[in-house]
Structures are given as C-alpha cells and as structure tokens.
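Folding problem:
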Amino acid sequence: MLGFLASAGIEEYAMQAADFKPTKLSLDSLTADGVKVQVEGDFTMDASKVHKQSVRNLGRFGTWIASEVETGSSEVDVYMPEYDNILVGRALIPGIKVSIRNGHTTHISFFADLKPGPFDQLRNVANDWIDGRLGQIRLKGKAQVPLKSGLLHLGKQTIEESLVFKGHDLPTLPRYNITKLNLREAYDGHKGMGADASIVVTNDFPFRLDVPPVSVDVLVDGCTQSDHITVGTAESQKLEIKPNTDLEVNVTGKVEKLPESLTQVCPDSAKSPLDAFIGDYMQGQDATLYIKCCKFPDPSTPKWAGDLLKDITVKVPFAGRDMGNLIKNFTMANVHFSLPDPFADEGSPDASPKISAVVKVNIGLPHEMNFPLDVSRVRADSDIYYQGKILGKLDLKKWQHANSTRIDAQEKGESTLLVESDIENAPIDIVDNDLFSEVVQALIFGRRPVMMDIKAKVGVKVDTPLGELAVKDIPAEGVVPVKPIGSHKGSNDVSKFAPKIGNLSIIDTSPTSLILQAHANITNPTNYSATVPYFNINVLVNETVVGQAMVKDVDVHPGNNTDIVVTVVWDPFTYGGKAGKTIGSEFLSQYISGYNVSFTFQAHNKTIPSQPGLGEVLSHFPITIPAPSLSGPKDPDDPDGPDDPDDGDDRDDSGRKRSHFIRSATMHIISSTALFTLASPFHSTTMYITALNATAYHDGHPAGVINYDIPFAVPPGLSESPRLPVDWSLSSIGYDAIRKALGGTLKLKAFANVGVQVGEWTERIWYQGGSIGAHVRL
C-alpha cells in the first residue's frame, strides 16, 4: 500500500478523483507586492471519476487506509505556454488537511498570498484578451507540495496540471447598462464640462472584492483606429463587489479642454473625429469609447496595482440615441425666392433657384444635456421629400449666422432649443420635375398645407463650457408645412396672378414682328417674395404660340406690384408658321375692333435657360388674361364718342364698352368724300394705313364704299385722315338716310379690310366699327 501511495498510481487516482468546488473567493487586503485572498470551498474524493478500474479499486483501498492527507505550505506558479511560458503569478498556500476517503467532503478555508508576474508581459496578454484575439487560454500550474499522512511523511510531490479555456469557457468582460447620464457644467467654477453616470454591471462571478477609488482616462477614435484621443477623465469611489450580485457603479467624469486633434478635419475626409463620434451616436449607432487604466487616487493603494493595470485599454460600446425626432417644429418666414441666372451653365450652383428666409427650428434636447448651449452658426445638406419621394436638395454649405434660446421643460416634457437663422441665397436643386409639378399644383389649387419631409445632415457651431465647437453631419429630420397659395375660400384659381397691362408702346419692328413694351401691375397673393433676373414666357392665342414676353431684373413682393416692365415679341409667323400668321391676323382684327379677346401666357423649357426642367413644370400652369383695352385719348368735342351713354348697343360679349379706333366721321355728299377722326392705341408710335376697303352701313343697309390705296399716317393720339373718296350706294336705303341727315349726325357702322404698317412690319386685318357718330355735310 505504501508503495502504491508513493507511486504514479496514486497521482493518477488523485488527479482524477479529487473535486474542489469553491464557495467563496474574496480579497482580504492589498499587500506591498500582491493581494491576500481568502479561499473557501469543499474538497471531495469521487472515485467514480477515475477511468481505470484497477486504479480506482486500489485508490479507494489505499485512501481508506490513509484516511487523511496533509500538505505543507507550498508555492504554486502559473505559466502560459503560448506566451513563451511567461509567469502569470505565484500563490503562497498554507498547509491544508483533507479527508481522502471516497465520498467524504472536507470544508476548506485558508488565506493565500498572490503575487502577479512581470507586468509588461501580463499587459500584452490582457490586451489580446480585451481585443478578442484569444481563441483559447492554456494555463499550466506547477508546484512542489510536501505531503504526509498521519505520522508518515511522503516527501515533496511535484504536481503539474494544464487547464484549457476556450469558447464559452473563456471569461468575458461583464455586461453593463448605463441607467443614468447627466452632462453638465464643471463644478466649483472650474472650466469645462462634467458628467455623472450610473452604471449597473452584471456580476456572475462568485468572488468578493473591495476595489479602491480608481481614475481612468476616456478616449475616442482619432483619424485612424490605431489613433486614440484623450478627451477627459472618469473616477469612481470605493466599490464593494459581492459574489454573484450585480454592481451599481457611480462614475463622475470631467472634460477640461478638447484637444485640437479632436476637432481638426482628418486627411482625405470632411469630418473630424468629434464629427464621427457624435454622428454615430445621434444616428442610433453605437459610438466607441476607450477606457485607459488606471490611476488610484488613494495613496494607501500599493504602487504595484497601478503598474500592473497601467496602459490597459478597454473598448466600450457607447449606445447611441436615435435623434430622428430631434426637430419638433420647423418654420420659415420672410421667404424670398431668387430665380437662377438664366445663362449659367446647367448643373452649376448659379443655375439653381435660391431661397432666403428666416428659419426657426425648435430642437428637442435629450434630458441628459443639462449645460448651456448657444448656437452661433448653422449649415445643412438637406433632402426634401414629398409623399415619400425625393423632390430636391437644399444646399446650405456656407455657414449661416444663427442664435438660440433654451426653453426649459414644463413638468415631464423635455427642454428645447429654439434656433433662428437668416439663410441667404441657398440653392434649391429640383431632382424630380414631375413631382415638383404635383407640388406646384397642390400649392396653387389646394386648400391644405403641403407637407414636406426634410432629412438633413446639419452642422452647427456651438458655444459650450468647452468653448466653440463645430460639429458636422448631425442627422436631423422634420416635417415642414407650406401654406398653399389658394388657401382662402374662393381663391383657388390662377386669376389672382393675372396682370393688368397698360402703357403699350412699340419699340422695334421687323418684317414679321412687333417688339412691344408694356407696364404690368400684378398682385402677389402669397407671403413669399422673389427676385426674377430673367423670365421668358410664350404668348398664345387659341393654343397657338404667336410671340413671347420677357421680364428682367424684377423684384416681386407680397401684395400689389406696379409698373413691371414687360417686353413682348409679337411674331405669329416665326413662332406659329402660316397657321400662326392667320390666327395672329384674326386676333388683331378682333382686338382693333374692340372685341373681348384674350391671350395666354405659358412657360416653356427655355423660360429659364439654365433650368429647363423648372420651365417645363411651370408650363403646366398657363394663365389666360383679357387683352388690354384700346384706350386712346378722348375727344371732348365729340358728343357721340364711344363713351356716350346712348351707345348702349355697342358693347362686347362681356357687356364691356367697346373702345373705337374710328372716333367720328364727316360725310361730304357733293364731293363724295369722308373725313375720319382716328384714335391711335399707341402713345409714341406712328402707324400707317396702306390700303383701305371699307363699307358704311346704316341699320344694316350699305350707304357707301371707300376703296383707297394711298398710304397715310396715323400718329399717336387723335388725328384726322385725308379726305377719302366715297362711292355712294345711291339707290340704297342707307344712302337715303345719309341724305336726310344733311346738316346733322347719323349713327353708322363700318366694316373694312385694312392694310397696316408699323416700321418694317405689315399686316392685313379687318375692322368692324359700331355706332360711329357721322356728321353729314354738303
């Protein structure tokens, strides 16, 4: 039996049958070169765990005889073979007496002194474990243990054992949850910011440990993952860790000054490390903090503790917060639109319409933010959505001045920050013209606000207790209601835009065209103003293009806008071909004759040359207005002029009084001639009658015919024609009425085919005049 106890057989039996279950592991005290720990547990010999029956039977018999075994004090060294056999640590264990009979349990309680191995080597292992580079850990323990059983000394036994931990057996960093976070100004008038956090750490380990107060550095990623930037420090008070009990840790942090490397833009990037960190956090993604160990403020803490943990860095995910609902309200006032530079290159910034406005944004502040904020500048790169589709982009790349006011929370609500900014000439890039057409239609004809979704990456310059910070690419979303133009009852038609045109003059001509200038008065029913550097629009009659109208350098403000200079090119042949020329001639004939005629303004893809898409959208909203009435000067000596109240039968289709080109006539019976008083519609242009074939009627009966082909001038204002030869219809009722009116006046109507010339432009039109006051003389 004694031979067996001293043989390798007992070693095999002991290693397989011995079972130790720790019930308590606690830190008793710190020593000058390590720690004193108390170990408690239950030791049992379980023969059923021995594989070989012969070893099991002999072991049970031998340990029944020996009954107890006592060890002397010993040193246990633990190595890591995969790391060049570095010494992990050494444990000084006192003598222990245990029962070695099968099935007997001995409760053990002892104190051991633990000393760590070389610090530099241990830190390398710790960093590999923290960074997840360890697939497994193999520990090799070695000790020489003096043994005796009763009075029998068995000498020193050399014990070596290797343990492998891998997969879920590897210890991991404990789980944690940040239950409270408060960001504030530094205490006691110090510069910088402070933070208070409460963290609950899950403790699944069966040990008890008192941790002295500890201070750590807090770092974030720099421009590269290997580059970490220190931003502040954090401290915890003394912690009492209890076995298998979750731990609540209260941490106080402070940031005195941000290093320049944190706010400087990284090479080959538009972001600084601070931008990247805050961007991840505010998009709901986990940002990353690094905790660099460790300093112990308590001077009684042994120096070796700091040396051992020095420079060990733990990567800590910092759970982000989705800031998608950060914007509580978004309004725009004093809105001013500027149309693009008409001759800018398509796609360039100058080719986009621009907006200036006072923007007011109410931003919800997370409850953690309890320090003063003052926003001094803002910029944004925004996408504008309508009904879930992207409409365009609002580019605010340049910093815009801003100011902010904090509005404290009421009861359980959250505080907000009201930011106001004057944005100037921010380009708007429309990316979906069909969708933009729907928006314009909703604004013109709708009654309810048009809801625009804004998704932006916002940059802000903020004055904080740390100084001015520039933070870029903060995600922000909001809904902007845009009031429709036709929001008032009875105002949902485009007639509110219709201009009134007057002061018509001809400034140039060509063989096929007249270039006219007019002054327009227009009412802007919106609250928006606009700057129009150039705007070109088609003029249509009966859906046929007969010319174009242009305005330049016009500022339109809400309400009445007067004396807007409009240039009109009248050229039916060039724009509409032969059909256009025929339609143009018919329009002018009806217009000269005082008929109720109208024309249509319609945008086209060259309305704004640098923005063909915008012109195409606006082309869906033509505006039809009545032609301005011919309003030549009034002859005060003509009682039978067009304003005579007796002329009740001479009105157009709408009941409006017709204005006559021929104001009066004098018929000379003996000389068979007629003299006409003419009222030119132009204020500064002389036109010419190149040919005239006219018939005068009384009560529908012809009275005479004028056929005259010698040109004569019609200057501005009132003028007289030359005496024109008349071929009387001698046997007609009409001529008889003229003869009977000798010495008096007679109402005549006339129909004529007329050749007209202004400068180089010529045209053949017809003219129908009604209720002309004709004086009859010999």
Remarks:
- Confidence is low (pLDDT under 50) at residues 1-6, 488-492, 638-649, 652-656.
- The CA atoms of residues 226 and 459 lie 27 Å apart.
- DSSP finds eleven helices and 43 strands in the chain.
